Amino acid sequence: MYQKKKTRLYVSELLTDPAVAYPAYYILSSSMSSNEMLLTALEALHSFDFRYYETPRSHRDIFVMFDAGTFPIYKEKYIVGYFGGKMMYLESHGWKGMPATAEIFEMENWLVC
């Protein structure tokens, strides 16, 4: 079976002086590493510049972002995407399935733009 090639996207390539340098890189597919919406969300996360983000009023605000192809931020730590009917968060080694805990339903844990 054909495996898509993955590349490392270093935070230092996005920002010269990140406020949060960990993780230092993300392993992404070539299409994700060139996705402008994802890059913008990563820049906001690593610079702690959330001026365009706000706490959602309801879960619908989060899914509106997913439908628009943009990425909300969870707990000011993770970029969240919606792929194949699953919510996933971005770690340094790629996208991981997001566990459904009670915290996921608390709107104050989310940032949307």
Structure description:
This protein is an alpha+beta fold. Strand 3 and strand 4 (78-83) form a beta hairpin. The strands form 2 sheets. A 5-stranded antiparallel β-sheet has the order 6-5-4-3-7, covered by helices on one side. The chain has one domain. It is 27% helix and 27% strand. The model has no long low-confidence stretch (mean pLDDT 93). It has helices spanning 11-14, 30-33, 36-47, 59-68, and strands spanning 6-10, 25-29, 73-74, 78-83, 86-91, 94-97, 110-111.
Salient structural properties:
single chain; 113 residues; alpha+beta; five-stranded antiparallel beta sheet; two-stranded antiparallel sheet; 7 strands; 27% helix; 27% strand
Number of helices: 4
Helix content: 25-40%
Output mean pLDDT. 93
Distance between the termini: 38 Å
List the strand order in the largest sheet: 6-5-4-3-7
H/E topology pattern: EHEHHHEEEEE
Q: Which runs of at least 5 residues are low in confidence (pLDDT < 50)?
A: none
Q: Pairing-aware structural class of the strands and helices? A: alpha+beta
- Tertiary shape: globular
Percent of sequence in beta strands: 25-35%
Query: How many strands in all?
Result: 7
Taking the sheet with the most strands, its summary is: 5 strands, antiparallel
